[in-house]
């Protein structure tokens, strides 16, 4: 993905470097106390910095398989993927987690994965199995990049919040939107791709000209946009942000409730449901993995009901498994996105660099 700021509240623990997230030793249940495990019983997951899972769930994996999970966090997803491409055939781990549909073709074209059809894949909808004929990657989660709005601002102004791409260029929303730089931010890139999907190859540039004329503000990344400039977030309120519209995630409103103290009766932010771009995130067995058997077991586990139901409150994404229930906080405070734009991975791979250059010349100059 990207600059992986898709975790809506930015409130997840961001452990740096190599972290052992679960270790369960022998029958006494004591932790092994070693990131390397024993007797080849370690499976290494290479990921972007935003991977997270609860200790009980990863300990359950250890109990079921005998493998201890070691996580090697490697920056944002683009940087992490580039490192695996450079070390192709001699990977730093066994499984890679975090390549999404904006980067998928790059990963597949470089041949860094060994095909494996994960157990339980029949519980995953076909529309997110973007490599279903070859099974080089397994879909793990989805997330929607959408414009969020500050409910209080629009209520106070007696102005209906925007709900679509078209709304954002209307005069009543002039100077209200902050978005992220397409060249440096995952949400920024996703929002631009959403405009490509909406207006086509010949129309998205004109849309951005109109958006610029309507006062869109561009900042480097999600952290600044959401937690500084956006007036609706907890961070933005403290920073006295003055933009009531921001490009973020459909999962941001539940996070605003979950991490609030005291918790509000409803989310202070809403989602413009007609502005969303769907991201699907994948994992794959790295070619040349030292622990291929453990890697396959981990891929099976990543789409298991246990892991899938743990994931939303750990990474603020939606599970792909059809039998995985969403947590109450997501269903009560979130917005279900029934229609989200997308662009085929091969089209993104073919055009991404030129689209970014074109966007930069249109918007930043």
Radius of gyration: 21 Å
Strand residues, percent? 15-25%
Q: Total helix count?
A: 13
Low-confidence stretches: 1-39
Task: Please give the share of residues in helix.
Answer: 25-40%
Secondary-structure-based class equals: alpha/beta
Q: Ends: how far apart?
A: 26 Å
Largest sheet: 11 strands, mixed
Query: What does the overall shape look like?
Result: globular
Summarize model confidence as the mean pLDDT: 88
Number of strands: 11
Helix-strand pattern? EEHEHEHEEHEHHEHHEHEHHEHH
Features:
34% helix, 365 residues, 11 strands, alpha/beta
Description:
The chain is α/β, with parallel strands linked by helices and 365 residues long. Helices cover 34% and strands 19% of the residues. It contains 13 helices and 11 strands. The chain has helices at residues 55-65, 77-86, 104-109, 151-156, 186-199, 204-213, 222-229, 234-238, 252-258, 292-302, 305-315, 328-333, 345-363, and strands at residues 18-20, 42-47, 68-73, 95-100, 113-114, 138-150, 177-180, 217-219, 245-249, 269-286, 318-319. Strands 1, 2, 3, 4, 5, 6, 7, 8, 9, 10 and 11 form an 11-stranded mixed beta sheet that branches. The chain is globular. Residues 1-39 have low confidence and may be disordered.
Question: Which SSEs are present, and which pair or pack?
Answer:
Elements: E1 18-20, E2 42-47, H1 55-65, E3 68-73, H2 77-86, E4 95-100, H3 104-109, E5 113-114, E6 138-150, H4 151-156, E7 177-180, H5 186-199, H6 204-213, E8 217-219, H7 222-229, H8 234-238, E9 245-249, H9 252-258, E10 269-286, H10 292-302, H11 305-315, E11 318-319, H12 328-333, H13 345-363
Parallel strand pairs: 2-3, 2-4, 7-8, 7-9
Antiparallel strand pairs: 1-3, 4-10, 5-10, 6-9, 6-10, 6-11
Helix pairs in contact: 5-6, 6-13
